[in-house]
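Hi R.,

As promised, here are both runs. First protein below:
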Amino acid sequence: MTTTGIRLHAPAPGWSIAADVVVVGSGVAGLTAALRCEAAGLRTVVVTKARLDDGSTRWAQGGIAAALGDGDTPEQHLDDTLVAGAGLCDEDAVRLLVTEGPDAVRRLIETGARFDESEGELALTREGGHHRRRIAHAGGDATGAEISRALVEAVRARGMRTVENALVLDLLTDAEGRTAGVSLHVMGEGQHDGVGAVHAPAVVLATGGMGQVFSATTNPSVSTGDGVALALRAGAEVSDLEFVQFHPTVLFLGPDAEGQQPLVSEAVRGEGAHLIDADGVRFMVGQHELAELAPRDIVAKGIMRRMQEQDAEHMFLDARHFGAQMWEHRFPTILAACRAHGIDPVTTPVPVAPAAHYASGGVRTDSHGRTTVPGLYACGEVACTGVHGANRLASNSLLEGLVYAERIAADIAANGLQARVPEPVPHPEIPEHPLQTSEARFAIQRIMTGGAGVLRSAGSLGKAADQLQRLHTDAREALAENGKTAEAGVDTWEATNLLCVARVLVAAALLREETRGCHWREDRPERDDTTWRRHIVVRLNPDRTLAVHTTDATHFPATLPTQAHQEQ
């Protein structure tokens, strides 16, 4: 086997597994894809970076959005999604999501997920940007944990082969450049250890997000952009990476807090909590018809503006009027997190500030989850399906993972990819991506937080681009001059992946000279539909430079043209 394009510096695989499909990731997208592939008779292997139940899905608090309530319709859900996406959603992709979504949720319930009910019906709530109650939730504010539990139990009940504690490294291809599996490193746990490979003609990336590219994020520590970086090295296109959604209400733990921060779900505002400043003023009233329930980009901007005006480090979320019983019943997870940090939301407003939350862009796919590399699929947060546009509508992420995972499984089964047995080929000399040191991770996070956070400008982004390029150049020159790179290992692979996605994100943000959705340029405060109602698409060249172009936002293709030879 060989990798395409560029590969990480790593030992040669010392063991291998054969399969029809390898799914990388164990959140709602990955496990749904795996279960559907297995049900179609495909030998499926699940690879996950931590334990099977440690996917990003389990951190989701609010719920899953679908037109399941009386009087609600997919068309209304579509309208809310298009408004939140600020002119960059692909309407056909959104229509697929909202039309197929309700039945996908029902199938999830049949799989074993138990959602909260009221009088025998699903208990539905509202979140920002939704004009109806359409958010199904579980355990009050533990929806992701319940979905993860149900899917993990289903995978284990089927005896599906899994490889846990494994960091995926690079895509493998056959002599024709088609997908032939992945290389991966197992971190000293389970049946395998060290670098190995899963050989398969179909690979499904469901690796989640890249929130760890910023200092403060709601993402777990494993969210280092591994799937996007792998796809870039393999020659795939990524799109819309500049649109990183900063969740408006993350528990403020101090100006120097780093790593994963506790989320205060949008559902708290959906149930009637108010955003206030230190004087008790509800500053979102009058800024948008939905006030605190405006789309997330608008609320995050409103909070940041008020912080700037008052030279404050945070704002407050006031839900004292809920009372202890509602907090304990509806939001037990958030209540426990706040109290663990010395804050009792029953009696005290909760200090909140925006933090990096969700990547609206990712590996570019068509309506079947196919990327521009034959046999490579992507779904969930790692993918850019065209659904989210410039800003994700609250609780659409779990639904997107469900719907597009099912579509991927159906496409793999329909195209008979399992009939193609990847053939080993001679290993050519492939350029290596020079590894960053483990310490570079923190440098990257500080650069990105300072230059490409909620507030951006040509100056801040240009400085960030220069600093990131220096990290990249220093490592490349060290490899060229000394024939050495940083020692291969999980820390250095992750830091290298973070630098890769950071460079793409900053390049796209610098190019997009407007404010749209969750991309806020202080120096370009207006939305510019004439020039920028377009998607920014990026590839990684063999010399490790970035190739950037734009595509018309009105044409996010249902089928990517480079997939044609895969289906013949």
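And here is the second one, sequence first, then its structure tokens:
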Amino acid sequence: MGTGPDGVIDCAIIGGGMGGVYSGWRLATAPDSKIPASGIHLFEMSDRIGGRLDTIRLPGMPHVPVELGGMRIMKSQSIIWALIHQLGFAPIPFPMGGSHNLAYLRAHRFQVGQYSDPSLVPYWLTEQERGKSPSQLVVQAIETIIPGATAMTNEQLRAACAVATLNGFPLRQHGFWQVLLNLLSVEAYNLALDGGGFNTVLTNWNAAEAIPWYMEDWSTDPDATQYYSLPEGYEALPWRLRDDFVAAGGEVHLRQELIAFTRRRDGLYALTFHDHGIAHDHVVLARRLILAMPQRSLNRIAEHPLNRAGPTEFFTKPGVSELLSTVTGHALYKFALAYPQPWWHMLGLTSGDSVTDLPLRQVYYFETEGEQPGGDPNNTNSLLVAAYTDGVSVDYWEGVRSSGPPFETQPNPFVAADTPRLGDPYRISALMVAEAHRQLGEVHGLPDAPPPYAAAFRDWGDDPYGGGWHSWNIGVDTKAVMPRIVKPVAQDEVYVCGESYSTYQGWVEGALQTAEMMLTGHFGLAALDIGLASAA
């Protein structure tokens, strides 16, 4: 391990997700960085870089990236948009489907373009609510409390939410669910919840944060919102940052779990790592510490279940635990199923998502191998993501997650017999796959659709992630909290960044946002030039 002449690391970054690898890349490559690249070390608990960006390939589909984590970018997200263009990536449109995609709610099947026909929508709505889609109902409620919200920029809407009140109380003291139930009928709320695809988005999190978050992503028609993806797979982004970081002189250490740290009298931090490769603990000294970790990972250190290095005093300092507890993590499941042919095409479904109130919740239609550059044109193996689910639906799948034997790849003419199995994080039970396929048949009205031949799964509620996304708790003043969370203790050189404590929770942009706050506010870096991609 390369260190300075005194054997001390200048900056230890903990976490190889986007917040960590981006921070390392910026510190190692920015011309105004005051830390030598050789003194920056990144430590990651797992055997991979990328965090909740996780791109895999299923057997028989080498040219179809499968996104089991984050999968899309909004053009309005200025930091990520500038970054991918600065690095030379060429994003492609991520179609979100259209009016022909399906809604299957309360055992009624109709196209999402038919929300305008109240006779097809099985909810008892008021006259003012009839004929509106789930997102239109939510936007109607938001416009009631923030008039003109749809015409505001994100910054203007945040400012309006900061001073808005409901029933005499500041908006941030309300939950989003509570606000919606003040402004919509119960049936309209249930339609918005069922037809929105996610369970946790409309639950009781900080309404002053939920409203601008929702409006940026959900307030326009899916075809009008500018979503993009990386054709190489989203994981290519953190990999590129890692490669550039290492080329500049930084070092990456995998399978290294930080279990405790303490500040010595000389001001250095003694970091106790568990090396999962050799099952051995060791101590590293560092001058600065960046904890690029989600809330659950931070709490794991604070709770210190491994009784061999002593407690981490940092987490007991005034205000630290209160800062860390300002958000809540939400479990999220993603299944990817590979089919021998895209049977959904016979229904005119080629991209985007269909939504159901069944535990599948969301179904995304993706590519066919033979239609991809370099793919065998005879290969009709196709990808479908089902389910993409959170909240109470996770509890449904948790019951069968490990029930019975694991699912094994089925014979397929484009899959060699000696193809290696997917690793443990991606394994899924045969029962789980069978149940997902059964629900797919019900959603699409095709009970005899051919079964999948391959499958993969990720649960982002598992340790050390603690959730696929996070939400601000009711009552939190995020404008006051965010500058503090990046440096929780003024006298300590310990910093925190990541999606958890951002205004773009659930997005890569959130990890980059907090990293930029940290790097420009405490490491002296100039802000990333977000005008780089303005003409793209």
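A quick note on the second one: The longest strand covers residues 280-292. Let me know what you think.

Best,
J.
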